[in-house]
Structure formats: C-alpha cells, structure tokens
C-alpha cells in the first residue's frame, strides 16, 4: 500500500483537501478525497476533588452547543503535550503540572487523516483564559459519574470526549 499521487484541491487555514491515488493491498489503484489535518491534542482536566472540567462550546458544524474536553490543533512543530498545555490555559484558564497520555484516536478515518492525542491533565492551577475570537466556550465542572451518565444519555456526543472519559474511568477502575 502506498500513495502514488496527490493533488491539493483546496488549501485552508485549518485543513486541506487532497485527491490521492493509492496502491491497494491487492495491487489495484484507487482514488480518494482525503481531508488533511495537522492533528490535535485533547485533555480531560481532573481537579484535586475528582471533578472533571468539560467545556460547553458552540460548534457551527453541528449548529448547536457540544460538551467536550479542551482540545486544539497542533501548530507546526508542536507536540501534543505543548498543544494541550496551551489549550487548557486558553479555553478553561488552568495550567496542568501533570499531563499523562491516554492514547491516540483518528477523528474520522474514512475521509480524514486527523489524529488526536488524548491526555489526562492533573495538578491544575488557576490562570486567566485567552479565548480566540471565534470561540464561544463555557467551562463546566461535574463529577466523573455525571459525565459518564451524560454519555449514556446522549448528551455528550463528541467522540474524543467520550473516549477520554471512558479510558480514564477504565484505567482507574471507576466503572460501577
């Protein structure tokens, strides 16, 4: 399997769209339209009392508010821990002394190459927020049990958030 050719159809601030030709495992050639994204990082902030911080953010693509964990796009040359350190401060006004990996997830592998690095952020200290002009974010402090119930109830529909919450609960044997 290998990429044989690539034509950039659109180049944007956040993503590019490419038409790619690949050699498949059976040696056929196939064409795909691929959304190319630099990747991102997201973290589940856990406070010293065990509560977690989610954000309630208006997402134009969904045309509604979505509950999710703080996340952001990787800048050129930036690693996931640096990215999430920046995003925690910008979006919820916290710095984390401890950032632990939770794994990596493809956001929508059928047409997009974006990988999101997941983390747990702990030992948090309060700082000022620095929202970007196009962000409308409201931090929400809740218990992990409440967050897990929000997944069950269909309130948390964001995949990276569901996965981070479930992995954290599983790793800490917090399922009831």
Describe the structure.
By secondary structure, this protein is an alpha+beta fold. The protein folds into 2 domains: 2-36; 40-171, Alpha-Beta Complex (Nucleoside Triphosphate Pyrophosphohydrolase). The chain is built from 3 helices and 10 strands. The strands form 3 sheets. A 4-stranded mixed β-sheet has the order 7-4-9-8, sandwiched between helices. A 3-stranded antiparallel β-sheet has the order 1-2-3, with no helix packed on it. Strands 6-5-10 form a 3-stranded antiparallel β-sheet. α2 (144-152) crosses α3 (159-171).
Summarize the entry for a quick read.
The chain is of the alpha+beta class and 176 residues long. Helices cover 20% and strands 45% of the residues. The protein contains three helices and ten strands; from the N terminus they run βββββββαβββαα.
């Amino acid at each position: 399997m290998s990429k044989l050719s690539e034509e950039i159809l659109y180049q944007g601030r956040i993503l590019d769209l490419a038409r790619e030709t690949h050699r498949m495992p059976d040696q056929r050639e196939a064409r795909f339209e691929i959304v190319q994204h630099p990747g991102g990082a997201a973290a589940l902030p856990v406070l010293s009392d065990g509560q977690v911080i989610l954000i309630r953010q208006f997402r134009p693509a969904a045309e509604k508010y979505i509950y999710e964990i703080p996340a952001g796009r990787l800048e050129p040359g930036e690693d996931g821990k640096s990215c999430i350190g920046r995003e925690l401060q910008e979006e919820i006004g916290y710095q984390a002394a401890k950032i632990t990996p939770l794994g990596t997830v493809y956001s929508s592998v059928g047409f997009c190459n974006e990988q999101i690095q997941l983390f747990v952020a702990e030992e948090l200290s309060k700082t000022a927020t620095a929202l970007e002009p196009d962000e409308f974010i409201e931090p929400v402090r809740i218990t992990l049990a409440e967050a897990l119930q929000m997944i069950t109830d269909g309130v948390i529909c964001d995949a990276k958030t569901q996965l981070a919450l479930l992995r954290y609960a599983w790793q800490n044997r917090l399922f009831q």
